[in-house]
Structure formats: C-alpha cells, structure tokens
C-alpha cells in the first residue's frame, strides 16, 4: 500500500487465498471508514468552534458544549471549567 494504488492492486490480484484477500479488503475498508469518521468529526469541531465565537454568555457556551460535543467524544456529559466570578466571555479583536 505504501508504494501506491497500482502496486496494491497488482499485489491484491496475485493473492490466491480468499481468506487473505478478505482480510486485506477488510483492513482497507476499515481504514476508509476511520478516515471518514475522523474527517466528519474534524469538520464538526471547526463548524461548532465558529459558532461558539458568537456566544458570549458562559451558560450558553456550557449548554452548547454539553449538547453537541458530548456526542463527538462519546461522553455522557462535557464540562467547561471556568474560574469563579466569570459570567461573560469577551472577545477583543
């Protein structure tokens, strides 16, 4: 696989054992699925991060993180730790 798709296909076609062919195909498909899931999660993080920039209330940020990001990390809850006394987030540009 490291030598390109042409070499991979040639080597794959030379495999006569069906169990080995199945194992190789399963590995490739699992890698494609893993890459797709990573890409989807990365896209989600970028999209939600841009949406978080528009939120200034700490409570809004906490609700958004808990509502959306817990699925990303397969967690029951997501906690945002903020120092006591902070109730607004200000952005300086």
Task: Give the helix/strand layout.
Layout: H1 5-14, H2 18-52, H3 58-72
Helix pairs in contact: 2-3
Please describe what this structure looks like.
The protein has 3 helices and no strands. The mean pLDDT is 81. With 93 residues, it is an all-alpha fold. The protein is 65% helix and 0% strand. The protein starts with a helix and ends in a 21-residue tail after the last helix. It has helices at residues 5-14, 18-52, 58-72. α2 packs antiparallel against α3. It folds into 2 domains: 1-47; 53-93, no CATH class.
State the gist of this model.
The protein is mostly helical. The chain has helices at 5-14, 18-52, 58-72.
Top keywords for this entry?
mainly alpha; 2 domains; 0% strand
State the major sheet.
Answer: none
Q: What series of H and E elements makes up the topology?
A: HHH
Q: Helicity level, as a percent range?
A: 55-70%
Distance between the termini: 47 Å
How many whole angstroms does the radius of gyration measure?
A: 22 Å
What is the number of independent domains?
A: 2
Number of β-strand runs:
0
Strand portion, in percent? under 5%
Q: Which regions have little confidence, pLDDT < 50, spanning 5+ residues?
A: none
């Amino acid at each position: 696989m490291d030598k390109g798709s042409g070499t991979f296909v040639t080597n794959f076609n030379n495999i006569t054992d069906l169990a080995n062919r199945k194992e190789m195909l399963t590995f490739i498909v699992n890698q494609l699925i893993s890459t797709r899931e990573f890409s989807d999660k990365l896209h989600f993080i970028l999209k939600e991060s841009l949406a978080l920039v528009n939120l200034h209330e700490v409570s809004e940020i906490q609700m958004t993180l808990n509502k959306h990001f817990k699925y990303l990390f397969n967690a029951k809850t997501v906690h945002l730790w903020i120092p006591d006394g902070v109730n607004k987030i200000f952005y300086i540009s």
